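We treat protein structure as text, and this decision shapes the records that our systems exchange. Below, we set out a record of this kind in full and without editing:

***
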Amino acid sequence: MKMTREQLHDLVWSMPMTEIARKSGVRDQHIARACDGAEVARPRAGYWQKVEHGKSVTRMALANDRYAASDVITIDASGWTIS
């Protein structure tokens, strides 16, 4: 799985990580670690239940303090890297 930080940010805010993991063939923990390490904000626990029940939710913006939005993240079975 290879994408920019911006694409990863959009992806994790569009569907639950378990679903992303199932579709991409990597573990959800690897996606979560990549997000945390590359400073990509991800939804907190309960976010998807709120969405499902029509409650108000806030999507966090992508911070570009340490990494650029265009930096490429690679996530595979061994973990993740950023370039």
Summary: Strands lie at 2-4, 72-76, 79-82. The chain has a mean pLDDT of 95.
